[in-house]
Amino acid sequence: MERKMLLSINWPLVGITAVLFFLGVLNLYSASGFRMEEGLNVDPYFQKQLIWGLMGLPCMAIFMLVDYRHLKTAAWPLFWVTVVLLISVFFVGKTIYGARRWLDLGFMHFQPSELAKISVLILGARLLSRDTGKLDFLPLGAVVGVCSIPALLVVKQPDLGSGLSVLLILGGMVLYRGLTSRVLRTAVVAFPAMLPLGWFTLHDYQKRRIVSFLNPESDPKGAGYHKLQSEIAVGSGEIWGKGFLGGTQSHYRFLPEKHTDFALAVFAEEWGFVGCMVLLSLFCAFLFQIAQVARDAKDLFGSYLAAGVFFYFFWQILINMGMVLGIMPVVGIPLPFLSYGGSATLVNFCLVGLVLNVSMRRFLFKKV
Amino acid sequence: MSGLLSPQDKEPPRHGQLLLQLLVLLLFCLFTLRFWYLQVHEGQDFARKARANQLRQEHVYAPRGLVRARGGQLLATNEPAYALGIVREDCRDVEATLDEVSRWLGLDREKVGEVYRKGRGKVKPFEPLIISHDLGFEEVALVEANKLRWPELEILVRSRRNYTHGDLFCHVLGYVAEANEAELERDQGLSLGDHVGKLGLEKVMETRLRGIKGVREFEVDVTGRRMAEVNTLPPRAGEDVTLSIDLGLQQLVHKGMAGKEGVVVVMDADTGQVLALVSEPTFDANHFTGGISTKEWRELSDDPRHPLLNRVTQSAYPPGSVFKIVMAGCGLHENMLNPAETVFCPGHLTLGSHTFRCWRRGGHGHVNLRRALVESCDVYFYRLGMKLGVDRISEFSFASGFGKPTGIDLPHEKGGNIPTREWKEKTYGERWQKGEDLNFSIGQGYTLVTPLQVARYISALINGGQLLKPQLLADAEPEVQGEVPLTGDQRDLIKKAMVHTVVDPSGTCWRARTPGVTVGAKTGTAQVTRLTDELKALKDHEIPYALRDHAWMAGFGERDGRRYAVVVMVEHGLHGSSGAGPVVKACLDYLFPRAGRGHR
């Protein structure tokens, strides 16, 4: 049985993940460089990312080998642990850039908000897989209500981006399950009505970002600067790109946050339209593979887990690419595998491991 | 493990599968389109914007053309000038640095602070902010010696114009100084801080002297810090220029005119080339190149002797008796003058109720044309003027080059004034009076001429009749502007009379006699104001300076086929002969050295 499982590992997904990760490290080498009079200086971000990746491998193995169905029982405890950690951040959290988001673990800074995404994903999978059929108001309210607790805690840190991510993952999974038509109709009416309300809860800097997104020319040196410089970086790559280490927008530091949120712009500048199409195809194949796992999963819980992971990656790719390409406002959401980030890399590998887990157990308990 | 198993009869949601696949497809299409739009459709535009982001251009200074005198001596050169700059980025304690700088340079601490504050917004933190221009060598050495302790200080070398004979050529060369806003606007080739010719030849020959700036193109990062140099277009130096002016002669004239105000022109009669051109007093043009201080400026502009005034171009004077050589020409040209015929001069001439006096109270007796010129008899020319009338005199004067600028390559040249009936009516609203013919004929009244015009007329008398443009450059070809309306015999007649003026014992120009050289000349004493009897009674040195007569001597020297016109005009010099004569004589001695100690 074990042998059969190993044989049925989803190798395409493993392969795509590996290629994406190494493309990311390669790109980070260039993205962390800046030019001085003496030549190119490279900050060692690519090395750190590589180390995070190596640390991610055992995590991935664990998430792959331990039968995912155990998570069903672990869902609630994990959820409460997360909530406790999120609350503790308010008291013992480390403040960086005016936001309390980090817990100091000694060897690393740990963001409970990352954990929140995972535990909501697992709990959501458990709650949604209890039943079949489209969701009506009551069960929807129950699921959303429970999962909103960590989301709100994260928003309060304040970390609007991560808080929304948590809700978006859950929202994706809910959509995957399906909604009754009256819920859908209500949503269509209610969401636009709530937008103005949402506006007033935003911080000033967040409002500025949205205004500058809608009208970037209003302030090209200020809030619109990121979008403009990012578009120039991407666009100036033209068809074939400026070549590896040939990017000027990044190396002369016109591009902000080039090794994190805007890493894609560095890639696009150096590899051009052709490189971007390869990268986009890889991301789409990656998402498609996860979608296939969700379809082929042996049980509903596994299917919802895979769907959750799908949305976890989907939203990040959509929002980050949209931001870099200037069709979405600037929000601090990284691009999986391309943006530098320790916790994010670990989580990415764990979640891929989870999908592999679901995938390789799809042949168990075949229907007779 | 089987306890963990979920119910087998529940299939994953169908439409959910579809949703995921559609989302992937949507993602792919959306971003393919966007990548295509940015990188292919608008790619070139963005590539241009990226280049504009990182490329900066800077001008490379083109050395200004050098100016030499006729003999090759350098008159205008380019010298390094040292400025002190502060690189803010390297500054640990700005206030301490400024304290130190103000102590070293002996500058007011407040002012240094203000320069710093003003410059802070305009200069990038890693670029030097200029605190002081024009450091002396000692100050440069001081800064360099303390560079280790004050790494933020930087000495910048720039180019500055230097005039080796700043006071000798200030009115010919003019000077260069930092371009002002109007000049920057007018001239696209100039950029802020550039020097540009403000006066004189520096201004007139600006394009020739300036050269073409080079361009240096380099890459910068987001803060503007300089990275790699990409491209350099070397500058083209300005053209060097050699003046027609002889340094030795110019120096000699300057010395001869020391303490006087006036103009001296020495012109090669055959080519029009100017060998000496002096407007006295002078100023040192070097004061202006580094930006003149308000105090220096005030001193120069308030000087009662007006050293800043270029008398060569901006002043015109009543010619006095010098005009008699023009009157003689006019009479001959109009055939209304018989050179042999004599006129009786009793010392005055009465017209209506007014008496016009001859300068010699006792009169000259019977005088013909030659004697009238040699002894400068006023009555002779009164009668000639009455015969000719204003129309003929002004027509001949215009034809001889008076009343309009000579076209010399200096800015703002005045043309003097030759009165006409129309001019009188237009200017004063009065008719021309008969008596004014008389004043006109002895170079008084409304007539104003410039020494350059006189030199050109005299050159024409001795060079075959050609009115030549006065040239300032050694390589300038002679430019004939017209012909004096006189025949060869007529010109000779005037010329000979001028020679007799020098040679004859009774001649007014005996001071110009130069052995071995054919010298001709005519003096002039031009009234600045109508002298009252009270003033006339005074001795020369008792007359108030501003009321004293202008003194002229206009002449020529000729030997071995070389001919020069020499015109000296001394403001308030009283008498032509004594006031201007010695300078004429000195010029002729220089131009025609005695055999054995020749300079040419």
Summarize the structure.
The complex is a heterodimer of chains A (368) and B (600). With 368 residues, chain A is mainly alpha-helical.
Model description:
The complex is a heterodimer of chains A (368) and B (600). In chain A, strands 3-4-5 form a three-stranded antiparallel sheet. The longest helix of chain A is centred in the C-terminal third of the chain and has 34 residues, at 263-296. Helices cover 68% and strands 5% of the residues of chain A. In chain A, α5 packs antiparallel against α6 and α12 packs parallel to α14 (342-360). The mean pLDDT of chain A is 86. Chain A has 368 residues and is mainly alpha-helical. Chain B is α+β, with helices and mostly antiparallel strands. In chain B, 37% of the residues lie in helices and 21% in strands. In chain B, 41% of the residues are buried. The chains are: A mainly alpha (368), B alpha+beta (600). At the A-B interface, β1, α4, α7, α10 and α11 of A face α1 and α2 of B.
Q: Which oligomeric state applies?
A: heterodimer
The tally of domains of chain B stands at: 3
Instruction: Kindly report how far apart the N and C termini of chain A lie.
Output: 17 Å
Per DSSP, what share of the residues of chain A sits in E-state strands of 2 or more residues? 5-15%
Radius of gyration of chain B: 37 Å
The helix/strand class of chain A is mainly alpha
Our measurement of the CA-to-CA distance between the termini of chain B, rounded to an integer number of angstroms, reads 123 Å
From the alpha carbons, calculate the radius of gyration of chain A and give it in angstroms.
21 Å
Q: What is the residue-mean pLDDT of chain B, rounded to a whole number?
A: 87
| Structural domain tally of chain A | 1
Low-confidence stretches of chain B: 1-9
The CATH topology assignment of the largest domain in chain B is Beta-lactamase
Determine the number of helices of chain A (DSSP H or I, runs of at least 4 residues): 14
Which sequence of strands runs across the widest sheet of chain A?
3-4-5
